[in-house]
Specification:
The protein is α+β, with helices and mostly antiparallel strands. Among the domains are: 157 residues, PH-domain like; 125 residues, Roll (PH-domain like), CATH 2.30.29. Helices cover 14% and strands 35% of the residues. The protein is globular and about 90 Å long. It starts with a helix and ends with a strand.
Length: 766
């Protein structure tokens, strides 16, 4: 079995082996309501390719066109030229024979149980080619599973990836007259359902500890509970029962630290620190709690605890949230106000919406369906020639891309890279085109610096910069000349922590003033003042140490100010006390955004985003915003955590060894445009949430796209909820939201190696 080694060698070519001619069928199970066999391509080629990720390979079926047919099909965006599948043992890939014809068969993991994909090889396909194809498929599966070259495997180890034709027979094939006009769903197994599988003992991904390794439990016990223990199996996409009865003990370990012990009758299972990294999810429909566990060797696992009664489940939730909140806030749970405790509990519970809101949401099912229905099986991996074509040799320099500023008034984006700024045009076809590089950003005195924060200003004619070495000053760059022309001393004793436009769309006007924030104060900056630029009449320094971390404004100029303590204050203007203080969940808030009308607040924490409805629903001030009036006891804010499901987090961590760490979350934005979508990223994954699907309680209201490098910054193009500008360490580009995919094993595992020119990506180490 030296075929893979011979084919790979040192060649950059991705294709390992190919069968040049055949037909692709989707064979429905007889158990399916759609019991038939559908011809997908009547003329196609099948191949195995390697991807940019080591030990990951794809099975690719490409449609072959007759002369002139391709041009006719170009106008139909729903026609797919190829289907791709991550080669994994869960496919049960095998080669069988039917009526003396060779058939490549594998499971359609996104279809009904028993559905198959079948590539019927042309009669001219040689036996030696089929043997080579099968052997390489086996070797690829071994490397995917064990993350090592197949040459280290024994024959017995390779045999585990040889599958027989054991699937349920399928109905006869009835090819349609023409290829289907649809975008096939992702072939990888869905990982949505938190519902446990039918109880049965599965193979544990993390061997349980023996009874002799049970720890001695000491400390104050917050609660003891009984539950079932399940472990998520990525190969099948379900939670497998590991132990039908485990004892859960939540214990205070001192210094505001808590532990969760999971002990079975025969085996001891887990000891967990109660911390945000658990990524906790409480599912009341199934009385279950899902969480992540990360082992010392970098392994990531998704576990599920299922409780036998609702009251036991609720008691467990109260005890665990008490432990988590105290560990983050370093104060006793009982000392917080009851409304604050309710806020914390509700943040971990599905948000319900009233029927009026549901009806409005159901009227407009637009882009999210577009993103799902147009999910393509097209490979996201490109050859070396395409990568080279996207590179522009004019972009040179040290450092990595760090910040992104998207223009409001003009179609420009700006990317900070060390002491340089790259300028990119937005083309009419929603692509990015390199315009120029602003070299050597420096103070008016000629001292070079790398901007720490940037903000477009005054109809995008200027950019305000901050130098980390001087937190008391800001600088104005004239973008027409590409040069810093002004230094603004804000105040000798006030360090600028953050700054934002006076109103949501002030950047589109000639407005000169803007809002500044220190750790414990808010103020207005007016560059037209002589001397210090801080406006004394609009400066409010708070006596308590609020530890402010981020600020954002609405279209009316209302302010949302977040802190490292995790709370959010809402103001209708500068210089006064907050109208509303939204309680803290405990984690620092890294960034904040608000919808133009002020209804929605979006706070970014390290492991999740927090979406808060700021409208007052009941009482005397019903219909007002928390910016204008304080919330009454009967009309508290409505929070929702935007987090990735624990099983998806486990898969991401296993693939990349990169912990969750979200970049700033953004709403799409535009004048007279509604906020419909949220974007953020973590590691190499960019994620968008559909607001309507999120509010109506969809289990997985987000789609993702993976790159080979970690994403440094991202934001929507102004006026669009479909086009996202993405900055990687060495690239920047614009991608359409339709290229995002549902989170599946394939979409999580398979990266785009580079941003490419055909999706408006420019490789730009300028």
């Amino acid at each position: 079995m030296n075929f893979l080694k011979k084919v790979l060698g040192n060649s950059p070519i991705q294709e390992l082996v190919s069968i040049p001619s055949g037909q692709l069928f989707l064979a429905r199970s007889q158990n399916s309501l759609k019991g038939y066999s559908e011809c997908i391509y009547k003329d196609a080629a099948a191949s195995i390719r390697r991807t940019a990720t080591e030990y990951h390979y794809q099975l690719v079926v490409q449609r072959a066109y007759e002369e002139g047919e391709e041009q006719l099909e170009d106008e139909d965006e729903d026609v797919q030229d190829e289907w791709t599948y991550l080669i994994d043992e869960s496919l049960h890939f095998r080669i069988t024979y039917r009526d003396d014809q060779a058939v490549l068969a594998w499971r359609d993991l996104s279809g009904d149980s028993g559905d198959l994909l079948e590539f019927v090889c042309d009669a001219s396909t040689s036996d030696s080619l089929l043997k080579t194809f099968g052997q390489i498929a086996v070797q690829c599966q071994y490397e995917r599973k064990y993350k090592e070259p197949w040459t280290r495997a024994s024959d017995e180890e390779l045999l585990q990836f040889v599958f027989n034709d054991e699937e349920t027979p399928v109905p006869p094939t009835t090819p349609p007259a023409s290829p289907p006009r649809r975008s096939p769903a992702s072939p990888a197994a869905e990982a949505e359902a938190p519902a446990p599988s039918t109880p049965k003992r599965g193979v544990s991904m993390a061997p349980p500890k023996t009874a002799s390794e049970r720890p001695t439990i000491t400390g104050d016990v917050l609660g003891e509970f009984d539950a079932e223990l399940h472990l998520y199996d990525a190969a099948t996409g379900v939670f497998m029962l590991q132990d039908s009865l485990v004892k859960l003990t939540i214990v205070g370990a001192g210094s505001w630290k808590y532990k969760l012990y999971v002990d079975g009758s025969e085996s001891y299972w887990l000891t967990l620190d109660v911390a945000p990294e658990l990524n906790p999810v409480f599912n009341f429909e199934h009385t279950s709690f899902i969480f992540n566990y990360f082992s010392d060797d970098g392994g990531a696992y998704s576990w599920l605890l299922r409780f036998g009664a609702v009251d036991v489940f609720e008691s467990f939730q109260q005890a665990l949230m008490c432990a988590l909140w105290e560990s983050l806030n370093h104060m006793h749970w009982t000392k917080s106000q009851e409304s604050e405790r309710e806020f914390v509990i509700e943040a971990f519970t599905d948000m319900s919406i009233d029927e009026r809101e549901r009806e409005e949401d159901d009227e407009d099912e637009d882009d999210f369906e577009d993103a799902e229905e147009n999910i393509s099986r097209r490979s996201e991996v490109y050859d070396e020639a395409e990568d080279q074509d996207s590179y522009d040799g004019r972009f040179t320099g040290d450092g990595k891309n760090s910040q992104l500023a998207v223009g409001y008034k003009h179609d420009r984006s700006f990317v900070v890279r060390g002491n340089k700024i790259g300028v990119f045009k937005h083309t009419p076809s929603n692509q990015l085109e390199f315009a120029t590089t602003i070299e050597n950003v420096a103070t008016p005195g000629g001292k070079s610096f790398a901007p720490k924060k940037v903000m477009l200003h005054a109809e995008d004619s200027s950019m305000i910069l901050q130098n980390a070495a001087d937190p008391h000053s800001l600088y104005r760059m004239d973008l027409e000349y590409g040069k810093v022309v002004d230094e603004w001393k804000v105040h000798d004793d006030v360090a600028v922590e953050a700054f934002t436009p006076s109103k949501k769309f002030s950047q589109m006007t000639g407005e000169q003033t803007f809002v500044g924030m220190s750790r414990d104060g808010l103020f207005r900056v007016d560059p037209r003042l002589s001397g210090k630029k801080l406006v004394d009449a609009e400066y409010k320094q708070y006596a308590t140490k609020n530890d402010f971390s981020a600020v954002a404004t609405t279209e009316a100029g209302y302010l949302a100010v977040a802190s490292n303590k995790g709370d959010i204050r809402l103001y209708d203007r500068l210089g006064i006390r907050a109208k509303t203080q939204i309680p803290a969940l405990g984690e620092p808030i890294l960034a904040v955004d608000v919808s133009a009308d002020g209804k929605w607040i979006l706070a970014t924490c390290k492991t999740y985003l927090l979406l808060i409805d700021a409208s007052i629903k009941e009482g005397k001030f019903a219909g007002k915003l928390g910016f204008e009036r304080g919330f009454g006891a009967d009309s508290k804010p409505r929070p929702r955590r935007l987090q990735l499901s624990p099983e998806h987090v486990a898969q991401m961590q296993s693939e990349t060894r990169t912990p969750l760490a979200f970049t700033q979350g953004h709403f799409n934005t535009g004048v007279n445009a509604s906020e419909t979508t949220i974007v953020s990223s973590s590691g190499p994954y960019i994620i968008t949430w559909n607001l309507k699907h999120l509010l109506r309680g969809d289990k997985v209201p987000y789609v993702i796209k993976r790159y080979s490098d970690n994403i440094t910054a991202d934001n929507f193009k102004f006026g669009s909820d479909r086009n996202v500008i993405v900055a990687l360490p060495d690239d920047v580009g614009m991608v359409n939201k339709k290229s995002f995919r549902k989170p599946t094993r394939e979409s999580i595992a398979t990266p785009v190696r580079q941003l490419r020119s055909r999706t408006s990506i420019v490789n730009s180490p300028f």
